[in-house]
Fold:
Amino acid sequence: MTITRLARATAIAALFGGTALAGTAFSAAAMAADWTMRISHQWSPGLPTAKLLDGFEKTVEEKSGGRLGVQIFPAMQLYKADQQHAAVAQGLIEATVMPDFTMGGTVPEMVVSLIPFLVRDEASVRAFPSSKVAELLEEKLRARMVEPIGWTVESRSLLITSNGRPLSEPEAFKGVKIRGLNPLYDKGLAALGATPTAMPAAEIYQALQTGIIDATVTGTTGALGRKFYEVQEYGVVAPGISFAKNVFLVNPGWWQDLPDDIRRIITDATDEMWTTSVEANLDPRADPAIEGLETAGMKMTVLDDAQSAALAQVMAPPVMSAFSEMGRDARRVVDLSRAE
Structure:
């Protein structure tokens, strides 16, 4: 190992508390290519982001003429969700795709996506990758020894399930025990009068079934897959309540070693992923999971602009106030998000 590489390895180990993660093997197909791109992520096969990555694999392998081999490891096969960033920074794998808000412990400003109803108009959504906000966040990610090369939209809406009555207006939340998202977002739920609680996703169904909690905040696909319709009567879809994104991260050294034409093939493919994910999330009413939940018996409501504004008026201020204290540039990120 050269002095430069040793210094980098030492810096990375210090960054991640001295933790060294196990490496991964190359497949025979990948070794036949000139370059290999191993991508680790947390989504199960068949989910929207996993499908996007499957398409990415096919596109870059075809356009590179087999010079770049892609290996995808879904559902945390290689690393847990909180290990993906470190694995890429250490060069144990070449790439990962991660939800932006899960990186809040590393780059606090990344959780701006959880401020309720901060970004609602279509033009701002489409323009995000070239925005000043993205530029600032990407600069901070580079300081954490990873190279951001693209984004996808995970969701622009959330599903709020309940029994007894739909949680479609602020007054309906009072006294409701609800599984929230994280401590920041849950400040908005508390402002509505609910009692938010943290809980692993695997425990939600039983908690709803036994009355430990009354309601949950989740995604429509997750609610359908986990059969929440069996234990929850109502589902309220809140368009614009979040702007959850995923960031595509690669190892900087690996990225710089690639030929220019291979890098261009990759970035063209990530741009295509962005466009596809935006189109899929523009209209929550077109979400096939909503139809699936309705077919299964859940009474679904999609909030209109007035109902969304009523929730935003209560939820957004405490979340925004807390977010503003989370990082050196947090207030700047909010201001840029509002301006663009």
Confidence is low (pLDDT under 50) at residues 1-10. The chain is about 40% helix and 20% strand. Strands lie at 35-40, 68-73, 95-99, 147-162, 177-179, 195-197, 215-218, 234-250, 299-302.
